[in-house]
Design goal:
Blueprint (H helix, E strand, L loop, with lengths): L2 H15 L4 H8 L3 H8 L7 H10 L4 H17 L2
Helix pairs in contact: 1-5, 2-3, 2-4, 4-5
C-alpha cells in the first residue's frame, strides 16, 4: 500500500473524529483550502513543514500524527 494514500486517509479520519471541517482545518493550519483538499484526496503529498502545520491545526503533536500514519500503514500491510 502506498504511504501517500495512508496520509490522506489518516488526515481525513482524524479531522472527522475531531468534528473539524476541512475548511476550518485549512484555516487553523495556515494551509490553502485547495491544498488541504488535495492532501486528503492524495493528489499531493505533504512536506515535513506541512505535517507540522496540520498537526498543530488538529491540536496534536506532529509525532502523534505520524504515529497514526504508521499504525495505518501497519494495518494495511497486515491486510495485503
Amino acid at each position: 500500500m502506498n504511504h501517500k494514500i495512508q496520509i490522506g486517509e489518516v488526515l481525513k479520519k482524524i479531522r472527522q473524529e475531531k468534528h473539524i471541517s476541512q475548511e476550518k482545518l485549512a484555516r487553523d493550519s495556515s494551509i490553502n483550502p485547495t491544498s488541504m483538499s488535495k492532501l486528503e484526496r492524495n493528489i499531493c503529498e505533504p512536506s515535513l513543514e506541512t505535517i507540522f502545520l496540520i498537526a498543530s491545526g488538529l491540536d496534536m503533536k506532529a509525532s502523534e500524527f505520524v504515529k497514526e500514519i504508521e499504525e495505518s500503514l501497519e494495518m494495511a500491510r497486515k491486510h495485503e
